Write a sequence for this structure.
């Protein structure tokens, strides 16, 4: 029986606590008597018969006819799937998407349907490399569909292949992939890593155009998204997306949503110490930690990066449900929270976060400084329900090398964003008004997004907007161990050690602040009362 | 009373070149420059005047000379021994005039009559009799045995070379007038469209100021300046750059400013006007990388022997065009701009002549040491 999440009050016997530092780790001593470490629940057991569970979900959907009843010869069918931004790290083969799509295709074949397109719902993310498509879908699906042009990636800039479905009562235009819009049925294959994803967000962002996304992907909206991972009614982003979802439901194609959840068994045996609570480390765990960090210190950053991105995670499916989008998504959320929720009493003055080597926007790539901000303030800060772990005006301390390093193939507009926009402003609203259009419409970025493997020109803005609420909420943000000029460019304060960071923080929160440490990995949502 | 003298001593030339190549400015300590007692030069003709230099700047071409890295091209345009110094503010002996010297030695200063076609039209910088006439060869005052130069307590000048300094202008401001005149001349080719200035040393900053002064004219594209050091970046912003970036950031700025695509390292569009205030192989090559098809690279920084890949110049019909000195009226504009932008503040340090080794070392690393213009100060004795 996996143990639930746990809030540990740091006392004299508490050993130093594990922090991510990009492609490495550190152990940090937190002040006794006023620090707490929030540990995630242990991984839930995975479903034993995964293929059986998938088949059961397809045949027993929620508020929807069984999938075979929706299939008929001569129909136009589109299967869309979540892209390479999740799960993190990538899962051991076979990926859930492969299993679900193969099960769907069995039923599709049995029904005599032959007009089937499979589309990566990547929104404005980068196109997946062939090896990533093969990893997510399996060689059988790839080889059967890709050569015939029936497996491809959504293109938010292909205006001949986008269609307007309708407009919300707030004037938001829903414009999505034309093939999906014209289909008799759209099957969406989701993996739900975090509660922010899934539901109406799947199609209305994954298959949308820039125009459609620009309604809610703004600095203002994200500043007003006070609960990205918790309650939808406190998220301006999700309220907008749910309005678009209503337009999709009322005026769009027939939908069949398949969502799945994962447990948090994220790292393989050679990183056994990651998933454990530090005072429970065995001699072997300590030796492993020392060996791993020592080995990492000797490697150049490129080699370390490769080693981490090559990790194949043992995490596995804990639930799969299909049917009507809203009904399915409520079950999914319950399952996500069952795995990730940890009750926590009250806020603290400081929140400490270890920033890992990867975020949803740099699989197999560089965690550039813009993504450090996005991961810290956009994702980890937002891993709460009700209230943030840190009080308003408190201090967020992150650990990451924050090197000035970018992947020019994946993140070309991020480089320009860092050099041009962030030297001008770090204010999400100001940059949105002053700079976003130029980046969104830049022909070169558009070319690289459409034909290469680059994120859309506007994407660094979205990454920045993701942290807008955290940025506004925090009185100060400190990065420990980062390249100082780069950290300052982000609008943050550099510190060389955790003790220095506490010293710097004392200007804002005094000499005896209370501290929460969010223990990542794995994933948790703090339910702050 | 003393002066710095640059003599022709081949062994010391070689030593200076070696030292200067290893470390810019080092040529001063081992090269053919020496401190010697002042010597009364004969007037080339009765109309010439004696000057007492007050401040005299050290410029890039001086450094190249001292380090022995200047091109052999100049050998016939120089007469030895000479006293360097062509950025000069001085008193006219026997008068209460304080003047800036126009160092270019044109037909009229050389006693050539009738003057050449270029001089006749005021293009003294394009003089067709540049090294001939009744004075020894010398591209400018400061490279000519007959005239002396500003790094001394006494030099000679032809009346046509003098520009009176208004009483309210400091010596520090006045010593910036000659380099500012170069910048005014360079800025005359400013188009109002996207413009890149490579380098934010004295020439880059002054050219920027001269362009900013024309801002009243229509400006459709940004002025992008590359700078290496924090003080250069700050000054470039103050003097009106729309964008200040590092050299490696430049192609990305120009790309996005001009909506360019990219093939290889080459932008498909680019800036119609690139002003290279460095003049090295690297800066010129980068200029060609970011200049628009049919555009112009204006070479303001003095280049020497450079190595360039010119295929793009051919393919894109771009031009590389030199930019030397000024015309006499440019000094009037320069005076006004020096006052308007308070450019006396760019004089970061002054040295007495006896400390010339330190002075030249400082000038050679001005940017890194947070300085712009280094000058000799002869006012105290
Ligand atoms: Zn002439």
């Amino acid at each position: 029986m996996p143990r639930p999440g746990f809030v540990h009050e740091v006392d004299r016997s508490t050993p130093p606590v594990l922090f991510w530092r990009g492609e490495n780790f550190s152990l940090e001593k937190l002040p006794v008597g006023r620090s707490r470490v929030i540990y995630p629940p242990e991984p839930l057991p995975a479903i034993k018969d995964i293929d059986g569970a998938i088949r059961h979900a397809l045949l027993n959907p929620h508020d929807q006819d069984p999938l075979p009843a929706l299939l008929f010869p001569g129909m136009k069918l589109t299967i869309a799937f979540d892209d390479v931004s999740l799960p993190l790290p990538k899962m051991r083969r076979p990926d859930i998407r492969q299993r679900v799509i193969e099960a769907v295709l069995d039923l599709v074949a049995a029904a005599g349907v032959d007009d089937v397109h499979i589309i990566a719902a990547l929104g404005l993310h980068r196109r997946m490399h062939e090896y990533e498509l093969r990893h997510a879908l399996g060689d059988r699906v790839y080889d059967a569909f890709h050569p015939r042009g029936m497996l491809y990636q959504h293109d938010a800039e292909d205006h001949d292949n986008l269609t307007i479905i309708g407009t919300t009562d707030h004037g938001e235009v829903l414009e999505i992939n034309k093939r999906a819009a014209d289909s008799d049925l759209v099957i969406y294959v989701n993996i739900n890593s975090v509660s922010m994803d899934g539901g109406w967000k799947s199609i209305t962002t994954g298959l949308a155009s820039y125009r459609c996304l620009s309604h809610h992907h703004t600095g203002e909206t994200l500043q007003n998204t006070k609960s990205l991972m918790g309650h939808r009614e406190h998220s301006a982003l999700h309220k907008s997306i749910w309005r678009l979802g209503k337009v999709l439901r009322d005026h769009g194609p027939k939908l069949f949503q398949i969502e799945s959840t994962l447990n948090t068994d994220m790292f393989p045996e050679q990183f056994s110490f990651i998933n454990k609570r530090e005072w429970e480390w065995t001699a072997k765990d300590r030796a492993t930690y020392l060996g791993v960090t020592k080995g990492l210190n000797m490697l150049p950053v490129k080699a370390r990066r490769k080693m981490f991105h090559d990790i194949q995670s043992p995490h596995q499916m804990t639930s799969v449900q299909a049917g009507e989008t809203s009904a399915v998504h409520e079950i999914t959320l319950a399952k996500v929270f069952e795995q990730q929720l940890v009750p926590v009493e009250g806020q603290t003055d400081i929140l400490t976060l270890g920033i890992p080597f990867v975020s949803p926007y740099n699989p197999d790539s560089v965690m550039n400084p813009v993504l450090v901000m996005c991961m810290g303030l956009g994702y980890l800060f937002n891993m709460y329900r009700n209230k943030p772990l840190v009080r308003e005006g408190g201090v967020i301390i992150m650990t990451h090398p924050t090197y000035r390093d970018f992947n020019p193939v994946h993140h070309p507009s991020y480089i320009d964003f860092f050099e041009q926009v962030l030297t001008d402003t770090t204010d999400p609203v100001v940059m949105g008004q002053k700079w976003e259009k130029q980046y969104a419409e830049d022909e070169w970025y558009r070319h690289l997004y459409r034909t290469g493997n680059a994120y859309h020109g506007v994407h660094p803005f979205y990454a920045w907007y993701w942290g807008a609420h955290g940025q506004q909420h925090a009185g100060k943000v400190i990065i420990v161990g980062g390249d100082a000029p780069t950290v300052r460019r982000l609008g943050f304060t550099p510190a060389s050690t955790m003790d220095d960071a506490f010293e710097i923080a004392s200007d804002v929160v005094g000499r005896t602040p209370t501290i929460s440490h969010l223990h990542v990995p794995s994933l948790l949502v703090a339910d702050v009362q | 009373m003393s002066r710095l003298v640059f003599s022709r001593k081949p062994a010391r030339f070689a030593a200076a070149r070696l030292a200067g190549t290893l470390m810019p400015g080092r040529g001063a300590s081992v090269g053919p420059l020496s401190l010697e007692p002042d010597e009364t030069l004969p007037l080339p003709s009765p109309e010439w005047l004696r000057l007492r230099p007050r401040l005299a700047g050290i410029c890039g071409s001086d450094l190249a000379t001292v380090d022995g890295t200047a091109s052999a091209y100049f050998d016939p345009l120089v007469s030895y021994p000479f006293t360097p110094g062509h950025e000069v503010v001085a008193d006219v002996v026997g008068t209460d005039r304080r003047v800036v010297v126009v160092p270019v030695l044109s037909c009229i200063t050389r006693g050539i009559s009738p003057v050449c076609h270029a001089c006749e039209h005021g293009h003294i910088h394009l003089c067709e009799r540049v090294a001939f006439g009744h004075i020894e060869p010398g591209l400018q005052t400061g490279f000519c045995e007959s005239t002396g130069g500003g790094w001394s307590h006494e030099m000679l000048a032809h009346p046509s070379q003098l520009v009176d300094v208004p009483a309210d202008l400091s010596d520090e401001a006045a010593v910036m007038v000659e380099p500012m005149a170069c910048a005014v001349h360079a800025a005359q080719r400013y188009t109002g469209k996207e413009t890149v200035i490579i380098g934010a040393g004295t020439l880059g900053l002054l050219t920027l100021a001269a362009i900013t002064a024309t801002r009243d004219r229509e400006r459709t594209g940004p002025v992008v300046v590359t700078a290496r050091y924090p003080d250069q970046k700050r000054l470039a912003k103050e003097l009106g750059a729309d964008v200040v970036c590092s050299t490696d950031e430049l192609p990305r700025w120009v790309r996005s400013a001009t909506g360019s695509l990219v093939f290889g390292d080459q932008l498909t569009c680019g800036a119609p006007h690139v002003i290279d205030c460095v003049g090295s192989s690297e800066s010129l090559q980068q200029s060609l990388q970011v200049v628009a098809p049919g555009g112009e690279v204006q070479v303001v920084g003095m280049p020497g022997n450079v190595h360039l890949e010119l295929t793009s110049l051919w393919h894109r019909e771009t031009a590389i065009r030199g930019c030397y000195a000024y015309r006499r009226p440019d000094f009037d504009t320069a005076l006004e701009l020096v006052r308007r932008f308070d450019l006396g503040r760019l004089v970061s340090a002054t040295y007495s002549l006896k400390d010339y080794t330190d002075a030249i070392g400082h000038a050679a690393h001005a940017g890194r040491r947070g300085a712009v213009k280094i000058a000799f100060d002869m006012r105290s004795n």
